[in-house]
Write the structure tokens for this entry.
Amino acid sequence: MVDSRTPNSSDDLRIPQVNMMIREQVVEVMRSAIASGRFKPGERLKERMLCEMTGVSRTSVREALRTLESEGLIRVIHNKGPIVATLTIEEASKIYEVRAALEGMAGRLLAEKGSTEDFRMLEVALVDLKAAYEEQDGVALSDATTRFYDVFLERCGNDIAASMIKSLNARVIYLRTQSIKQPGRIAKSIEEIERVVGAILRRDPDGARLLCEDHVRHARSAALAELERMLKSAQT
């Protein structure tokens, strides 16, 4: 499946005039460029280049870079400036450990305490996710996946857990982009999510927790395999 978010030229990074703060637009296009590999790990991000690519001021670019640094997507190196962060195997493993624990808890809570409206919204989000997959639309699939997890986390009843997971969101999306490069991973991921939702709707807390953890473990295996492949490729 081709992800049509992947920018193919500098023009694809230019910021359209819409009702959103310019900084937020710059952050969004740069997140997508990093996740897609347009900006590669270790690549230096020069302010002038980014201004030319996005068509915005240096102030807006600097603000966006600070946001991306706080999200762990870029690092600022002394005498060199901002570069795209290299996510190590160890760092990625730790992120998945946190995801497994928190998402497992969220699934359990949703199965225990979710309302009829919570369940309805979760089902709608799953239908949208499956439809995007069937359409083989990379942009729609990415958006639908984000919406599904927004519903899943917002409706679990523990806003602290939801906030902690969302604090990792930029790196989770980056890792998800890597994991789905593995052949057959997208279809398996949809099946795993369906099983999670089924357990929640049956009000099976232990089953929901275990299935959430299982889903994250499978995603971890796929993402780490892709990261290892990227590291080996960079060394050759």
